[in-house]
Amino acid sequence: MVCLNLPPSERYKLENVYLVGIIPGPKKTKNDQINRILTHLVDDLQTLWDPGFLIPTPSMPAGRKIRGALIPLVCDLPGGNEVAGAPDHNATKPCAYCEVTLASLDYVEEPFPPRICAKVLAHGESWRDAETEDVRRNLESQGGGRWSELMRLSYWDPVSYKVLDTMHMLLEGMGNRHCRKTWGMDPLRLDGDGQTLAPAIIQDPVRRTECETVIRTGNRKQISDLGLETLRSLCVERELPWGVVLGEKTLPKVWQHDADVITPSWIGRAPKYAGTAGTGTLKADEWRNFLTISLVFSLPQQWLGAGERYQSLLENFMHLVACIEYASLRTISEKTIAAYEAHTLAYLRGHLRLFRGKVLSIYQHSSLHLPDFMRRFGPVHAWRAFPFERYNGIMHSINTNNKIGAIFFAGKYLC
Ligand SMILES: [Zn+2]
Question: How far is the CA of 136 from the centre of ligand 1 (A)?
Answer without folding.
Answer: 23
